[in-house]
Design brief:
The protein contains 9 helices and no strands. The chain is mainly alpha-helical. The chain has one domain. α3 crosses α4 and α4 packs parallel to α7. The longest helix has 40 residues. The radius of gyration is 23 Å and the shape is elongated. The N terminus is likely disordered.
């Protein structure tokens, strides 16, 4: 029993349970508590706007979104490692303190990206006077996470709409030109797709898109 209980209750058994739990919910945390959602949605909008159904492949887009997510979240992950993970590994803090310290930087990141209207909406929806009196990092994750997700979806769809505009202009011009030439049976998408790809390459579309995504989180 003495071998199990270490540092005031933070035992090896509890540490293993915590690690396994984090590994299990890691995919959900990636989707709900990081910038991954906004990035993958915008990349999906780009593929549809260009009329490319399977290019780039979904695996490539997911991999790109993952590495951009790690790049953007690196300051948050470094802070969690320094303030929570390292002291926990050295048995300087207990499991409860570790979870509190680890959730702090993530909450700060999500609150910076969350709109005031969405946050107020879920605070009122909770119908808990104690929650409504809280603010900032004092809010529970049950309020911060859905507010963050709604804000991310809203921003992703706005960026997707802006991505569609130049490609929609090209589709309209090509369709009007073919109709004026009497080539009604020729699909406009077949003609406009090479021009959309050419436009995207000429303006360094990937660089502009990634730069816009990264700076949108600053």
């Amino acid at each position: 029993m003495a071998d199990i209980v270490i540092n005031g209750g933070a035992s090896d058994v509890v540490r293993i349970i915590v690690i396994l739990t984090i590994i299990t919910i890691a995919p959900f945390m990636l989707l709900m508590m990081t910038c991954f959602t906004r990035i993958i949605i915008v990349l999906g909008f780009l593929r549809h706007a260009m009329g490319l159904q399977q290019t780039p492949p979904t695996q490539v887009l997911v991999g790109l979104a993952l590495f951009i997510t790690f790049f953007i979240m690196s300051p948050v992950l470094s802070e969690i490692n320094e303030t929570a993970l390292q002291p926990y590994n050295e048995r300087e803090i207990e499991t409860v303190v570790f979870l509190e310290r680890a959730s702090g930087p993530i909450k700060e990141f999500m609150l910076e990206q969350t709109g005031t209207d969405e946050l107020e909406f879920f605070r009122e929806l909770s119908r808990d006077p104690a929650v409504e009196a809280l603010s900032g990092t004092g809010l529970p994750l049950s309020v911060v996470v859905p507010s963050f997700m709604i804000s991310e979806l809203k921003r992703a769809f706005i960026m997707g709409f802006l991505l569609f505009i130049p490609f929609l202009v090209i589709d309209t011009i090509v369709a009007s030109t073919l109709m004026s030439m009497g080539m009604i049976m020729l699909p406009p998408v077949m003609i406009s797709m090479p021009f959309k790809i050419l436009l995207f390459v000429v303006v360094d579309g990937w660089g502009l898109l990634i730069r816009t995504l990264v700076t949108s989180f600053n």
